[in-house]
Amino acid sequence: MALKVYTSLLLLFLVNSVWTRTVRQVYDELDPEHWSHYTSECPRECFCPPSFPNALYCDNKGLKEIPAIPARIWYLYLQNNLIESISEKPFVNATHLRWINLNKNKITNSGIESGVLSKLKRLLYLFLEDNELEEVPAPLPAGLEQLRLARNKISRIPEGVFSNLENLTMLDLHQNSLLDSALQSDTFQGLNNLMQLNIAKNSLKKMPLSIPANTLQLFLDNNSIEVIPENYFSAIPKVTFLRLNYNKLSDDGIPPNGFNVSSILDLQLSHNQLTKIPPINARLEHLHLDHNRIKSVNGSQICPVSIAVAEDYGFYGNIPRLRYLRLDGNEIQPPIPLDIMICFQLLQAVVI
């Protein structure tokens, strides 16, 4: 199970990266004839590397408008400009676009022409981070795989905006202005293949409703969440990485066995208000509990199996899999209790 999860996460990491060559070297590699061929349709404000003919670099140019995009372009870089609007005209011939980076501009929802994004039928990656959006733009291309909207002013998610995005694997909404009321029971409906959901650094007080069932990574850091509902994670049985750092979780806000979930391999609960370690599953590998209010650690109490059983299993037995435990920033005094080491025989690092 863990191997399958790590394989999926590796694939997610790889699609988050796009290989590009160092474009400056083309000046020395190509003769004027080839250069003329590749730059004949290149907007004068941009750079079209002949060694990467499907890419158009218009970043860091002080642009206020999107230039006309040649038909051959798949990868469009427009970040770090002063662009306020997205209209249909520049994209008339750009029917093959797969990737658009519009991070760090001044785009507002009113500046996005109606339907312009959904007409980009082949678009897979859309980056609109660090803009002036107040709601998730709609409609979106049905084939989209990644949507990054971090660091905007988003407080609203239009009804049904994600309903046709069955291919979306990553949705990043962190550092916006989302309240609990913005996340309804059907908000994420349609995201059947979502793997990563990032809603960190918003204004949530409750765990969001109806997280897509296939979610592997759920990031909820830097909110004001106080309570984990009973059986919350049974609805997302594949969740593997869970981050709840910098919230307001206390012992009373966590139900018995709330985090005793076999799918979770990495659990981060740093900077909360816990006074004891919550029950964990034997499959958990990384546990972050630093900067809480924990005064002592009792291995017999936190061990997912009895200490006697853990000791009898030996190194090669079916023992708890915890490898990393972080407890600094609490009131715990060293040394590490011996029963911790007896229980968690695979521990490689303990920070205390």
UniProtKB/TrEMBL annotation:
Membrane keyword on record: no
Subcellular location(s) per record: Secreted, Extracellular space, Extracellular matrix
InterPro entries documented for this protein: Leu-rich_rpt, Leu-rich_rpt_typical-subtyp, LRR_dom_sf, LRRNT, SLRP
UniProt GO cellular component terms: extracellular space
Principal subcellular localization: secreted
Domain LRRNT: 41-75
Protein task: Plays an important role in generating and maintaining a transparent matrix within the corneal stroma.
Family: Belongs to the small leucine-rich proteoglycan (SLRP) family. SLRP class II subfamily.
The protein's name in its UniProt record: Keratocan
